[in-house]
Sequence to fold (245 residues):
Amino acid sequence: MRPRIGITAWLRALPTYLGRETQLYTLGSEYVERVLAAGGLPLLLPHVGNAEEVLDLLDGLLLSGGDDLHPESYGDRHDGTSTGVSRDVDDWEIALVRTAAARRMPTLGICRGMQVMAVAFGGRLTQDLGDVEGHPHLSGMEPEAILALRHQVALEPACTIAAIYGETTHFVNTIHHQAVVEAGELRVVGYGSGGVIEAIEADNNWPALGVQWHPEKMHEPQEERLFEYFIAASKQYAKDKSLFT
Fold:
């Protein structure tokens, strides 16, 4: 049986034949493709139900990328640089990750997903990186140029993410303008150019990893390892769970 992986989606107003602003739950197809390729069964999560009943259906939680978190979600004031914000979505995803932590359910946070993980456990964000080295403004750039951008991340030698990639220096893409500045109860294990926090992990036997980059959008074969680790942990979680049901 493939482990069931819940992937957070984003509600967006997009043009269709039914109107210029049709409300659609959206997700980049790469997330689904990577979960399938690694052996998981991807299930998209709309913003409905409560965290307990949703996670009852799952073996792993993937917090995807998306728009910015509302600054109020981490105790800050909106300075005008955060876009597409929704307190309701923030609250929903924070509840999911806190519940997953209580269950020790395998969790992978990507970009916004990593930021949600940090905020859920007392962390804070910077609303805009500005001119930090290695993190240029993406507005006005062509999509191909954005996807081609790479910068270096230094990983702690003893961390799980370094073990997954088999290296302590990893080159990643650059598709974000916000970043974690305090990880709260989670452990920072990777810093990118300009000292930006780019990788976090959980302790207390909770298999939870967060990365600021988008591995699902990178074609380097080693990016598959992160998803393979996550799916293997979810498969073990499903097996252990079945022993008590």
Residues 59 and 237 are 6 Å apart (CA to CA). The mean pLDDT is 93.
